[in-house]
Write a structure and sequence with these properties.
This protein is mostly helical. The chain has one domain. The strands form two sheets. It has a two-stranded antiparallel sheet with strand order 1-4. Helix 3 runs parallel beside helix 5, helix 4 packs across helix 5 and helix 11 crosses helix 12. The longest helix is centred in the first third of the chain and has 36 residues.
Length: 316
């Protein structure tokens, strides 16, 4: 165990962990939304993330940008980021919509058992992942360098760069907007009503199918933004990267309290920091092990996660 390495790099491990954790948190929001309403673990959500990440890269390719491109000028950078974010959110939301319509809705109509939903989710995940693998010939796709990784300033001696600010800031902003949408909008009230009691909500005039579709679209849009941020931060994307990232995002959702939106954010940030600390203490090969070990330990003492409040009981 390298305690000197951990303490000497504590600040940098924290900031990079929060940055990666912000991406986990955005993907985790999709898991927790779907589970909060349907009590369904949507394992195909990792491929919803991948759809957005590839859509962002292909959007930049459409503008003539590749992994070797350098973009200068704040106006140009914001334009490329904004357009790619919109396309990525639409692509992921569209993928989530197809999954809900093709894979899950027919099962709901037939009152299929939970095991059927689980097997379908895994099958949809593998099918979509392999489709991207075939389309990209299983080769990595590179993203242009839009945001500089040079330090902007130092906080308590720790360098902070534009990528970290963008990733963490975007995740927090999307979380605030989602929280307001769920707690203040008419559709959000419908989502909470269906999450609490779908049958009673239907008697009150809530269209259950429309609400479920909106949940998939909203969660998909969050995953699309996460895909964009992943491209900006890592700048290399392969078709299979969604599997492990999706598992960690699901872990973050459970860690914070599955079905709890704010818990997903806290769980994602915490997971990113913990796995970075483990890498600094034990070595990078222990990073993934630590991410899942902390979940097991927490659930032994708090099975409902850190916050544990369900979406249906979220307060306005």
């Amino acid at each position: 165990m390298d305690f000197n390495g951990l303490f000497s790099n504590f600040g940098e491990l924290t900031t990079t962990g929060l940055t990666q954790g912000a991406i986990y948190a955005l993907v985790a929001l999709g898991y927790t939304l779907v589970y909060g309403v349907l009590r369904l673990i949507n394992f195909a959500h990792s491929e919803v993330f991948i759809a957005g990440a590839f859509a962002a890269i292909w959007t930049w390719n459409g503008f003539g940008l590749d992994q070797n491109s350098q973009v200068s000028g704040i106006g140009s950078i914001l334009f490329y980021l904004l357009v790619a974010m919109i396309v990525a959110a639409i692509a992921s939301a569209g993928t989530a919509t197809v999954i809900e319509r093709v894979a899950y809705r027919p099962l709901r109509k037939r009152n299929a058992p939970p095991l059927a939903f689980l097997i379908t989710a895994i099958g949809a995940s593998i099918a979509i992942s392999e489709a991207f693998g075939i389309w990209t010939r299983r080769l990595p796709e590179g993203a242009p360098s839009l945001v500089s990784s040079k330090p902007l300033f130092h906080l308590f001696g720790v360098p902070i760069d534009s990528v970290q600010l963008l990733t963490i800031g975007a995740a927090l902003l999307m979380m605030v907007l989602l929280d307001l949408f769920i707690n203040r909008s008419r559709t959000g009230r419908g989502i909470r009503a269906v999450a609490q009691d779908a049958n009673t909500a239907a008697l009150m005039g809530v269209n259950k199918d429309r609400i479920i579709l909106m949940v998939f679209i909203t969660g998909g849009a969050m995953a699309g933004v996460a895909g964009l941020l992943y491209d900006v931060r890592i700048q290399t994307l392969t078709y299979s990267v969604g599997f492990l990232l999706g598992l960690k995002a699901f872990t973050a959702a459970v860690l914070g309290g599955i079905g709890n939106l704010r818990g997903a954010l806290i769980g994602g940030l915490l997971l990113g920091v913990v796995e970075n600390y483990a890498a600094g203490l034990f070595g990078s090969q222990w990073k993934d092990f630590a991410a899942f070990a902390v979940l097991v330990v927490l659930l032994m003492f708090r099975p409902t996660g850190l916050l544990g409040e369900s979406l249906g009981r979220a307060r306005a």
